[in-house]
Write a structure and sequence with these properties.
The structure holds two protein chains of two kinds.
Chain A: E1 4-7, E2 10-13, E3 19-25, E4 31-37, E5 44-51, E6 54-57, E7 65-66, E8 76-78, E9 87-94, E10 104-105, E11 109-113
Parallel strand pairs in A: 2-11
Antiparallel strand pairs in A: 1-3, 3-8, 4-5, 4-9, 5-6, 7-8, 9-10, 9-11
Chain B: E1 5-7, E2 10-14, E3 19-24, E4 32-38, E5 45-50, E6 56-59, E7 62-67, E8 72-77, E9 86-93, E10 98-100, E11 104-109
Parallel strand pairs in B: 2-11
Antiparallel strand pairs in B: 1-3, 3-8, 4-5, 4-9, 6-7, 7-8, 9-10, 9-11
The chains are: A mainly beta, B mainly beta.
Amino acid sequence: EAQVTQNPRYLITVTGKKLTVTCSQNMNHEYMSWYRQDPGLGLRQIYYSMNVEVTDKGDVPEGYKVSRKEKRNFPLILESPSPNQTSLYFCASSLRREEVDTQYFGPGTRLTVL
Amino acid sequence: ILNVEQSPQSLHVQEGDSTNFTCSFPSSNFYALHWYRWETAKSPEALFVMTLNGDEKKKGRISATLNTKEGYSYLYIKGSQPEDSATYLCAFKGNYQLIWGAGTKLIIKP
């Protein structure tokens, strides 16, 4: 089954404790992206990757890192989480960059930073 | 600052009634307009990608229209059913990244 998986689905952590949210897709998509979703706001892009070893900042990259060592995986790293990073995070992928390509979303990771 | 507005923010509709809501976006440098459906606790799923002014797309009871000159798209749902309850997101693609609206939350009352 074609899908995007994220882990963990829920995470409660404390300020400053490094964490990684994994994202994997099995559709051989080139383009992958991380978003955060906060109440009353549209999805905001954190980072994106157009292919292996090619990553770039989105609209709200501060406090986050990513890597794309393999085509299927695109982990999101919070080196020193802070309470303002409490949010719902989505990973998404598409065959190419997203101008007209449909994005496939993961199930979301709800992160709480205390 | 480029902005995508969706209205209304939320909508309660009686089962069986038809409804529609709006996505407003910049009318310049248009490339594509996406509609997604996002059920609570699930992943957003693509409904339509629209690229041409005057485009009209349909999937079952859901349809969408596009006016790129005035910068709006309507999503219509005919004969609403409980399974239509979801947040409907639109996203505008211009010269830069996709810009997402905050969504219209649709609640169908039985």
